[in-house]
Design brief:
GO terms for molecular function: transferase activity. It contains five helices and no strands. The radius of gyration is 15 Å and the shape is elongated.
Length: 136
């Protein structure tokens, strides 16, 4: 599935980020935050697509908050607080202007967001396999 593959590819890039380099390289820091934003966007869209495959009512809404809440309700997302924080940070990250906020964002990506993405990727792969086995 293309959306899930795109999410996985972006996640691989984010997972391979050198967070030591991000400590003192402004361009690299900006790149990590940009990669987070892209990964987040692809994550909720892949979630939406898998929810649709499972016939989840409300999966056609198209709004990230509703998709994330539905994913949590149906057991596709395991930590709603982290995902809602990701949503908030993805919406505000383009308006980060001071180093303290950038540092906080980098730490959140490294310490919380990547592991949430990894967990979602695993769940989506399992849920996709379930949906495909239902077709055969």
């Amino acid at each position: 599935m293309k959306k899930l593959d795109n999410f996985s590819n972006c996640l691989t890039i984010l997972r391979n980020a050198d967070f030591k380099l991000a400590d003192n390289n402004d361009i690299y820091r900006t790149g990590v935050i940009g990669q987070f934003n892209l990964t987040f966007e692809l994550a909720w869209k892949a979630l939406q697509e898998i929810l649709r495959l499972h016939g989840a009512e409300g999966a056609d809404t198209g709004l990230p908050r509703e998709i994330l809440q539905l994913g949590y309700k149906l057991g596709f997302v395991n930590d709603s607080a982290v995902w809602l924080l990701m949503l908030k940070k993805s919406n505000t990250s383009v308006h980060i202007y001071n180093e303290q906020e950038v540092d906080e964002m980098i730490l959140l990506i490294r310490d919380s967001f990547i592991s949430a993405f990894v967990a979602l990727e695993k769940t989506l792969r399992e849920k996709l396999a379930e949906a495909e086995s239902d077709w055969t």
